[in-house]
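Anyone else keep sequences and C-alpha cells together like this?

Example one:
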Amino acid sequence: MSDTRSRPATVDAWRLRAAVDYVARMQRPDGLIPWYAGGPADPWDHVESAMGLTVGGRHQAAADAYRWLADAQLPDGSWWAVYDATDGGEGTHRETHRAAYVATGMWHYYRVTGDRALLEDLWPTVEDALAFALAHQQSTGEVRWAVDPDGDPDDAALVTGSSSVAFSLACGQRIARELGHDRPAWRRARERIADAMVADAAALDLGWLDKSSYAMFWFYPVLAGVLTGDEASARLDDRLAEFVEPGLGCRCDATEPWVTVAESAELVLALLAAGRRDRAAEIFDWLYRWRDDAGVFWTGYQFVDDEIWPAERPTWTTGAVLLAADALGGLTPAADLFVDHG
C-alpha cells in the first residue's frame, strides 16, 4: 500500500530536495531553465520547471524564470519553440500551447506566493501569449499547434496542445479576475475546445501529426479539465491497461517498451482529477526507482533492454514530479491546481 497519505507536507519528507536543487543549479543567470546543463530549452518546459521551483520553495528563482519569459516574448505574443545557448531560437517554429503556458505558470506562482506585483507585471505577457494562441483557434474549436518562422500556421491541431491551451485559458481567466479584468472571450474559447474534444477528440490530430499512440493524447484532456466527471473516467479506463506497466510507470508511447517519469507524473495528476487517488499514489511511488544516486530523476526506462534511456535528467521531468507530489501531499496552496477543475 502506498504511503503517500501519511507523509508530512514538505518537499524534504517526500525526498525531493535534491531534485529541486538540481533544477535550481541548471537555471542560467538570465533566468532561462534548459533541459539539462548546456542543453536546449523551450517555453513550455521552462514553465514546468519553474513551477517545480515554486513547489520546492525557490520562489526567487521561479520569478526570474517568469521575468525571462517577459523579456524574451516576441511581438506577436509567442516564443520560439526551442532555444539554445547560441542562436536564441530564431528560425524555429512557434507553438501555441508553449506560448499559452505562461498563464498556467503565473497563476500557479501567485497561488503559492501571493506575489501580486509580479502577477501585475506579467499580465501583459500573459494577455499577449493567450492572444497569440487564440489567433489560431479554428471555427470548430481546436487550436492549430504551430506557425512557421514567417507566421504561417500549420493546418493541424493536437489533442494535447489544444487541451493545454484550454487549461492555460482557465488560468488566464483566474488571473484576469484577480486583477479586475474581464475576459469572457477566453471562457468561450475554452468551451469551444471542450466541445471539439467531446465531439471527436481523434479528429484534432490530423495527418502526420496523429499522436493517438502517445500517453499525452490519452490523458491530457483529463489533466487539463477539458473532460471531467464520467467522460474523464471513461477516457482513462479505456486505455489504462495499455499504457501502465505495473511497478514501472506509464509508457510514453503505447507501441514502445519505454516508461517515462514525466508522463507517469502527469498521469498521476489526471488520475487525481478523476478521483482515483489510490491508483495515483501507487504509480507515483514507483517513480522513486528512476533516480540517480544523487536523487535526481532520469527521463525514463527501456524495459526490454533493461536500461535507463536516454541518460538525461531533464529539469521539466523534475517539475512534473514536484507538481504530482504537491497534488498528492498538499505541499503548497496550489496543490489542487491540476486536480480541482470545478
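And example two:
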Amino acid sequence: MGYSYSIHDHFVRAILGNKEMARAYFRTVIPDYILDTLDLSTLRPMSESYVSADLKKILSDVVYSCKRKDHKGDAGISLLLEHKSAPDKYTPLQIGSYLFSGYRQQVRQGATPLSPILPILFYHGKDQWEYRTMSTLFGETGQKVGDEKNLDLYPFIPNYQYIYHNLREIPDGKIGSSENKFLSASLLVLKHAFDRSWLSDNFMSFLIDGLPYGDKELQQAFITYYFNRVDFSEKQAEEKINKLPLNIKETVMSTYDRLIEKGRLEEREKVYTEKLRAASKMLESGFDFQLISDILDLPMADIEDLGKK
C-alpha cells in the first residue's frame, strides 16, 4: 500500500499538527458519549516512537493522547492523516494497519494494559462516500443474512469501528459555528476545495473572519492552500489583497509573493531542464558547442559538461 502527500494532506497536517486546533477539532467530531469520558485539557502530541518506522512519516505529527476523566489511564486518539479527498474502498484496511501498528508499539514500550486508540477518518472529497467497516471487503462472508451471520467464517473477519467525519455532509452554518474561528474557516475551505467559484466569492470573509485567529505558521499554511485552490491571476489576487484590512494584508501579501516567486523559480528550473535535454540531443546529432549555446541560450560551460558525459 503506497502513500503520497497532496496539497490537501499538507494543509490538514498543518492544522491538526497544532495542539490547540486539534483540541478544537476533536471537540467537534468526537461523539458526545465518547467526549464525556475524555479530558481534552490533557491533550498532548505523542512522540514519534509511538508508531513504527514505516508509519512514522505519516502519523508522527497527528497522533495525540489524553487522560480519561475517570483517571483509569490514557486514551490514545489517532487522527489518520492519510485523509481522503476521494473515496477509497480499502480505507478500513488502511485504518487497521495504523491501529495494529500503534498497539504493537505500545507492547514494545511495555504498556500494561494497552490504551485504546480512537481512529478518525476525515473526508472532504466532492463524491458521495458512505461509512464502511472492514467486513464489507469480504462480500457475502462479511454480511448478515436476516438475523444470522453468513457462513461460519464470519467470526474470523477482523472488524472495528472508526469515527467518520464526512465534511461534505455538514452544513456550512454548522461548520462556521465553531468557537475556533480559524478552524471554522479552514474546514470551510476544505469542504469547498473543489468549488473554485465558491472559494473566490468568499475570499474576504475567509481571511477577515478566520485568519487573525491562527498563529503565523497556520496563517501561511491557510494562505498557501487557498491560493492553490483558486484561479486568480496575479492582478486579480493583488486587487483582492489590497482590499483586506491592514492587520492581515501584509501577511497575505508576503505569503502570496513567496508563492509567486516559488512558481517562477520552478518554471525557470523546468525550462532549464528542457534546454539541457534538447542540448543533449543536439550533441548526439553532432551540433557545434557554440551553435547549441547560441540557439538554446545556455552557458558554454553547461554544454561542455554535457559533452563530457
